Amino acid sequence: MSYNTIIYEVEDRILTLTLNRPEILNAFNREMLSEMVDAFDRADADDEVRVIIVTGAGRAFCAGADLSAGDDTFNADGREDRESGLQPDGGGELTLRIFELKKPIIAAINGAAVGIGITMTLPMDIRIAADVAKFGFVFARRGIVPEACSSYFLPRVVGISQALQWCYSGLVFPANEALSGALVQSLHPKEDLLGAARAIASEIVANTSAVSVTLIRQMMWRMLGADHPIEAHKIDSRGVYFTGRSADSKEGVAAFLEKRDAQFPGKVSTDLPGFYPWWEQRHFS
Hints:
Strand order of the largest sheet: 1-2-3-4-6-9
CATH superfamily of the largest domain: 2-enoyl-CoA Hydratase, Chain A, domain 1
Mean pLDDT: 94
Number of helices: 11
């Protein structure tokens, strides 16, 4: 697939995915949804991609949904380009695809991140931001509700009280409030933001097993919904048993004992354990 709304660039085993509609602040539409999902499929299938960074072109990260349809923007029944009746939320299709990723993903929020512009980042593993960025869960001010599975992700990221305060008010808030509310982990001058994201990504690329990172990502996210720590014990035990017999484990221990950098041979495309994925498939209905 060729891309019109995003830029896909791989360097040093790091994919930088840039939202690229700068003339309208990278507003999100169905084409961007389709292209982002395709890009994540492509990255998951490519062993040369170890980490993904998502950022925006120009002044904004993503200023929310494309409002060019006017007051029928969110009304599927009133739009010629949409099927009528209940349809899966496009933002949810995107965040569910991100949730399923085999690769770690970092949001480098370079500017305004509002509506889907911020909810799309919630299933991303690490969020860092420019100190000039602004954020807003503005749904109640548009007469709708939060989307993109954010009623699941946002309270888990920032806590229920903070999530409700931001969603009830719909206020746009500055980067320092996002930092104090644990929505982002660090702030950076805009010109240094991508460098900071690449430093995090490069540490992962240089020093870790790709197979281990894939398993860790899904183990951590999946356990957020577990009803008892025994569920973690079950998957931890299976994971340790499998990885403990692997070539990556032998290399990791040998490299430590020999005081050298590890060269892990395992590939996500071929070397994940037979029990992966261990969770039940779920679909919108």
